[in-house]
């Protein structure tokens, strides 16, 4: 499968994407735990069906030492025993923040409260931005049919 567009080849979209990648780097350097960031990125990408993001974040998580069991169980995190309560709260927030059309009213107060119980203000802010950024990246990649499978861990550092 070939991508519909190389958005980096166009000066305007290339510049915009570089800014988005810079925002992603700032989030990556935030106090939000790296493992949580990768798990959330995977879950959002699973929900949205973004192959290129699934490829990227699976490989980045693996390179960072994440276990195959946890990576395989992200899709069924509610029934899995391998995630901390904080990670579960982040995954729940990621799901509700991604499936906004499915839940009238957006993110439930209880979901927000569970996340706020485990993350301080800065971490919670980074989590919100990560969820939003991943949803945007997924949509860009889906619209332009970016293929997954060729990503190499550390490629965009």
TrEMBL record:
InterPro entries: AhpD-like (IPR029032), AhpD_core (IPR004675), CMD-like (IPR003779). It comes from the Bacteria. Pfam families: CMD. Residues 24-96 form the Carboxymuconolactone decarboxylase-like domain. SUPFAM superfamilies: AhpD-like. This is Alkyl hydroperoxide reductase AhpD. It comes from Streptomyces spororaveus.
